[in-house]
Amino acid sequence: MTIHVSPEACPALVLNADFRPLSYYPLSLWSWQDAIKAVFLDRVNIVSHYDTIIHSPSFEMRLPSVVSLREYVKPARHPAFTRFNVFLRDRFQCQYCGSTHDLTFDHVIPRSKGGLTTWENVVAACAPCNLKKANRLPSEIKMFPHQAPYAPTVHDLHNNGRAFPPNHLHQSWLDYLYWDIELEP
């Protein structure tokens, strides 16, 4: 019996050698093909399997659902300053009104007034608030961000990413994703 497995089906959760996900948001996932390739190249250990079996003429194997890297990959010390990471730091909410729709980013001190494009001066803002604030200082229009902009750590972004789990979490992944949350008595 041949089973067709689509590339989107059966992704493998990728853990670092310390059994923590490489990334929470986006969640560190590999396609089943990449996971199998890493197994054969001896780069990962299989931690858990799916029930799905793949076959070739001379070989069969259960698909890995969780893999851990054999060698520890040191996480970046400072996250990249990207639009996505600004949104993640600000939990995908406008820092002026709290909206989660039509997000862009705003320079708290406008560039026209000497503001820089840095972690400490950029916040997530919805388009209406951004247009309303325009190129004015917060004190001129009485629009202050709920949270002062700051340079987040990788840990800050991982913590925020946990608040946005993907649509599908396989049962075998759960022990590795939220292991530092407080347990119920």
TrEMBL record:
It holds the Pfam family HNH_5. Keywords: Endonuclease, Hydrolase, Nuclease. Residues 81-131 form the HNH nuclease domain. GO terms for molecular function: endonuclease activity. InterPro entries: HNH_5, HNH_nuc, NA-targeting_endonuclease. It comes from the Bacteria. The keyword Nuclease applies. CDD domains: HNHc. PANTHER family: OS07G0170200 PROTEIN, SLL1193 PROTEIN. This is HNH endonuclease.
